[in-house]
């Protein structure tokens, strides 16, 4: 285990200790002074700031990489959210190799995406969103190095109460649980030349490949879902310089025929843009 990965484990463990004792102190009197209960939180915050600082230094010290051109991971009409075309890191953090990650949601005139609700309905089923179940395709020839789809697809977080729950409670719990609980069901492809592609929030039970499989560009890998730290069914895609989410750095990408769509930009990918899969 690398020192950075070990530090990440310790960071999460410190927050977990603080949370457990905070809950326990409501029920029983702790056998130590009140101020000592804050030590794990102070240590976790300090370690978190150190990890963030070293990550920025690590990113800045690395030689800049040109965007890697790959095929889009989907076909049809989609629009972009949290795009690296508008800011980097696109998701507000370099953690888990997300520096140049992008989220995309499917657009369907016959079945529009449900709009954000201030109060009601609090949640919606994943099946109500056109992205749910959409095929995800290999962006290049490569080898599957990791694939899992055992986590459940949860309800949407498309209302103010549900979004607050996601931001204030759920995201924190998932963050303490590690990368796989944040990304949900996900797979990683080795594209060669030190570049890896990661697809997150896959639909439970939808994997069409497993670790070790060779795939070709355009081959179906899985289906879009709503697992992990996700507000609605969508595709989270990123390139990285390694297969381990805890230590990988983000790599810029460009989708062939599309580029890098900015936030709110709608784009189309015709099915015939892909070579025939073997």
CATH fold-level label of the largest domain: Glucose Permease (Domain IIA)
Q: Based on the structure given, which CATH architecture of the largest domain is correct? A: Distorted Sandwich
CATH superfamily of the largest domain: Glucose Permease (Domain IIA)
Count of domain modules: 2
The rounded Rg comes to 20 Å
**Integer average pLDDT:** 88
CATH class of the largest domain: Mainly Beta
Return residue spans where pLDDT drops below 50 for at least 5 consecutive residues: none
Taking the sheet with the most strands, its summary is:
9 strands, antiparallel
Distance between the termini: 37 Å
Helix content: 25-40%
Q: Given the helix and strand composition, which structural class is it? A: alpha+beta
Q: Note the run of SSEs as H and E.
A: HHEEEEEHHEEEEEEEE
Q: In DSSP terms, counting alpha (H) and pi (I) runs of 4 or more, how many helices?
A: 4
Strand content: 15-25%
The outline comes out as globular
Number of strand segments: 13
Describe this structure in words.
The chain is α+β, with helices and mostly antiparallel strands and 278 residues long. The chain folds into two domains: 3-61; 68-273, Glucose Permease (Domain IIA) (Distorted Sandwich). It has four helices and 13 strands. It has helices spanning 3-27, 39-61, 160-177, 179-183; strands spanning 68-70, 76-81, 102-106, 135-137, 142-148, 186-192, 195-200, 214-215, 220-223, 235-240, 250-251, 253-255, 266-269. The strands form three sheets. Strands 2, 3, 5, 6, 7, 8, 10, 11 and 13 form a nine-stranded antiparallel sheet that branches. A hairpin with a 2-residue loop joins strand 6 and strand 7. Helix 1 runs antiparallel to helix 2 (39-61). It is globular and about 65 Å long. The mean pLDDT is 88.
């Amino acid at each position: 285990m690398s020192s950075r990965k070990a530090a990440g484990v310790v960071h999460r463990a410190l927050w977990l200790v603080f949370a457990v004792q905070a809950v326990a102190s409501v029920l029983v009197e702790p056998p130590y002074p009140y101020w000592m209960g804050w030590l794990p939180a102070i240590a976790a915050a300090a370690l978190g700031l150190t990890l963030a600082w070293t990550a920025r230094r690590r990113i800045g010290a690395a030689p800049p990489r040109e965007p890697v051109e790959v095929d889009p991971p989907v076909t049809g009409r989609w629009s972009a959210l949290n795009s690296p075309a508008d800011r980097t890191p696109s998701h507000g953090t370099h953690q888990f190799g997300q520096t140049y990650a992008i989220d995309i949601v499917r657009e369907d005139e016959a079945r529009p995406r449900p709009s954000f609700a201030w109060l009601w309905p609090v949640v919606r089923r994943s099946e109500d969103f056109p992205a749910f179940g959409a095929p995800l395709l290999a962006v290049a020839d490569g080898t599957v190095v990791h694939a899992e789809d055992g986590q459940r697809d949860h309800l949407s977080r498309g209302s103010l109460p549900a979004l607050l729950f996601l931001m204030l409670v759920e995201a924190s719990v998932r963050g303490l649980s590690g990368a796989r609980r944040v990304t949900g069901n996900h797979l990683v492809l080795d594209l060669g030349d030190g570049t890896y592609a990661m697809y997150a929030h896959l639909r439970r039970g939808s994997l069409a490949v497993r670790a070790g499989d060779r795939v070709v560009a355009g081959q179906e890998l899985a289906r879009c879902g709503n697992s992990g730290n996700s507000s609605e069914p969508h595709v989270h895609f990123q390139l990285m310089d390694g297969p381990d989410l805890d230590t990988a750095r983000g790599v810029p990408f460009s989708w062939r025929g599309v580029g890098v769509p900015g936030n709110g930009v709608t784009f189309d990918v015709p099915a015939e843009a892909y070579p025939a899969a073997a």
